[in-house]
Every structure is written in C-alpha cells, then in structure tokens.
C-alpha cells in the first residue's frame, strides 16, 4: 500500500512538474507578447508628392470618372497599402497644412501650423525648441528612429549629418533632401545621389535605388528594436519628380493609353482662377507637349507600385515577428501632384490633387477594420491624434485636435461637418474645408467656393450663388476665426470678403 502511494505520488509529482514547466514556458511566451504589448509601437510611412488617386483603396471609394481621371482603367493597384486601409481606417478628407514639402512636414511632426514651427517655407529649419511627437515618445521610453527624406534642415541634398534630431534618437539615415532615383554606395555610406544614366556606369554593387535603400534600413532598425517599444518614421522621397521608376517598374505601365483629364480642356483652363495659373514649369502644356509628358505619369505609376511593394516588405516583417496586433501603421504623404488636372503639374494650389493627401492607418487592437472617415482633417491633427491612440499623456499644447476617438469608436463610417483650414506658404491664399465644401480666399482673386459633391472637378464657383449664401458665410466666418486663433500670416481679417 505504501509502495503504491509512493509510486502514485511520484507520478503526480512528475506530471505536476511537467505541467508547471509547460505553464512556465507558456507564461514566458505570454509575457514576451505582453511585454511587447505594454506600449503600442508606431510606424509612419510617408511619401513625397503623392496623388491620393493612385491608391486603389481611394479609387474604390470614388466615382469611376474621379478614380480614373487619366482614362478608364488607367491607374495603379496597391494591395499592400490597401491592406492597411482594409484592416483599419481610411480618411477621405485629409489635407496638408500647406501643399509644399517643408511646412507640411513641420506640421505633421509637431501638431502646429507652419508659422509656429520655424519652417513655414521650403528650405527653412524646424525650430529646435518645438516639441515633436518623437520627443514626446522618446521621453515615454520609446526607441525613436527616422529614415529617409527630412527636408526640415535646409536645402542640402544627400546629406545625413542632421544636427537637430527632433527627438528621433537614431537619425543616421535622416537625409536633408534630394530626389535622385539612385544612391552611390561605398562602405555602406551614401557617396552621392545619381540619375539613371550615371548609375548605369557604376558597378551594380555600388548603386541602390533610394526606395530600396531606405526600406532596407527601416527593416534593419525594426529587427534591432523589435523587442522594445519603438516609433519609426520612414520618409520615402518618391514618387516626387524626376519621375523615374527603376526596372521592372519602369515598364509596367508602358502600354497604358493615358488620356488628358477633363479639366485640362482649353475651355476650363481659360476660366480658372489666378491662383491656379502658373506660366512656368508647373503648366502641364509648357515647353513639352502632353504626348511627351505622358511617360512621366507612367513612371509615376511605377514608383507608386514600387512603394507599395516596399510597404509589403514592412508588413511582412511585422507579421513574421508577431508585431502586427500591437503596431500602429500609418501611410500618408506631405502633398499631392496635380498631374495634368487643370493643366498643372506638381503642387502649391488648393485643388484636391495638390492639397488632399492619402491617410490610411491600422491598429488592430483599437481601430475597427474597414472604417471610413469622412471628416476633414489636416496633418496638424496628426501628432495629437497619434499620441491619443497610443495613450501617451502630455502637457504640450497643439493647434491640431486629438481625433483618436474618430478612429477607435464602433462606427463603420464617421461623418462630420468639422471645418478646418490650410494655406499657401507665405499667406497668399487660405482655404477652409469640410467634407463637402472648400472656400479659397486669395489676395488677388475673388473668393471661390467649391461644392466637392456636386462639382468634384472644382470648376464651378458657388460663392455668389444665392442658394449657397449661408454655406459661404459659415465657411468664411470659421476660416477667419481660425486664422486669427492660429496667427496665420498674410491676409488681413478686415478685407471686404462678405457674401451678399
């Protein structure tokens, strides 16, 4: 009897120890995930001069004639960026604070309008004393890194010695500026930026496409930091001019029959406002004919496809390392590119293709999948919103709003009449906007009110239409209220822009 008891007890002990060991190992694995999950990680993927229409997640939300302004079916399919939207949220009325690089980027990282950042125009330096989301996250225990184009430290190209880190503790790959498609690399250091013809003359192991280089460095940093809270911003210089895609993206769209957008027709070009006219290089029908310019758009499509594949590499890394659920992933840009609409190239105007930017975000723990947000934001809202999503408290005061509950609530579609504003660097024109209406007031032009629902091509001025009197007044009063609140330079508030 005693022997049976000893044997039984021994068996129970063995089973108990095995069970405890298994449970301990399970707890270690659980703790490993929990430790990763104490604080949400953040990855911001940011492109340059990116037309929102080229993302298929936006295309599917628009009428066909708006999704394919360059001809039926002529566009890019972006499954990886789409996945961010499908697994999270897409904002349909997200604008930049000013549709050029430096002021827009300054607003995104600070939550302030450009005039308060020290960098309201291209080529200026971000004020070293201004708080950034990176500074705040670093103070809260995050490993902070920046990879790619910075454009907040002067005009110097292909330089990586940025003195002011702006809170990004690892800024080894923070480039001051430049848009050459290739880097000349030696000893893992960037020697110069190269065009395609110069790159062809060098050994293949000494050149790398800029998008690939910055994506590679991003993955290296993520591998290093994957077991601690991290915040990383990747700023890809494409699809900015010079509109060159590397092979095989270079020829992916060569057979597309690109058509001129409706708004490029002479009868519409003749009536556009003065703020939309540029007699220089930004006029699409300038020195080169439209036929010659078509290839630039095909290259642009190729660059967008290359970017999408690079986003896929990052998403795959998160999945392979069990980081997907606890990592916020944002895809956005600094401004758009008109690409022939209203006979324009590039940016700098309040039209949608210039001033509206893509913004998709996923955070599986708190943002419901498949969410569509039709509220007007600017990237001034980005920093307070992202800190809100990350539950990071701060006493810093922002111009932008913490709109995180718009993303985390259970509504599949969020609609709001919120009015916000953006402006041209230097204060020449200012624009108030909500999800449907856009008011543009310029120093040298009559006020323009667009109804983006009835007139998505932005051809008709409803400002003097009696049926829009109350709307024009509402948009104008709120605009001037915000201009005064945020000390926007340029227009005087007592100018006689009154709806009659």
CATH architecture: 3-Layer(aba) Sandwich
Number of strands: 16
Low-confidence stretches: 1-36
Assembly type of the chains comes to: single chain
Q: How big a fraction of the residues is strand?
A: 15-25%
Order of helices and strands: HEHHHEHHEEEEHEHEHHEHEEHHEEEEEH
Which strand order do you get reading across the main beta sheet? Answer: 4-3-8-1-9-10-2-11-12
Shape: globular
Report the total helices: 14
Folded structure, characterized:
The protein is an alpha/beta fold and about 500 residues long. It has a single domain, classed as Alkaline Phosphatase, subunit A (3-Layer(aba) Sandwich). Helices cover about 30% and strands about 20% of the residues. The protein has a nine-stranded mixed β-sheet with strand order 4-3-8-1-9-10-2-11-12, sandwiched between helices. It has a four-stranded antiparallel β-sheet with strand order 13-14-15-16, covered by helices on one side. Helix 8 runs parallel beside helix 10. The longest helix is centred in the first third of the chain and has 36 residues. It starts with a helix and ends in a 15-residue tail after the last helix.
Considering the chains and any ligands shown, give keywords for the structure.
500 residues, alpha/beta, Alkaline Phosphatase, subunit A, 4-stranded antiparallel beta sheet, 16 strands, 18% strand
Write a brief structural summary:
About 30% of the residues lie in helices and about 20% in strands. It has about 500 residues and is α/β, with parallel strands linked by helices.
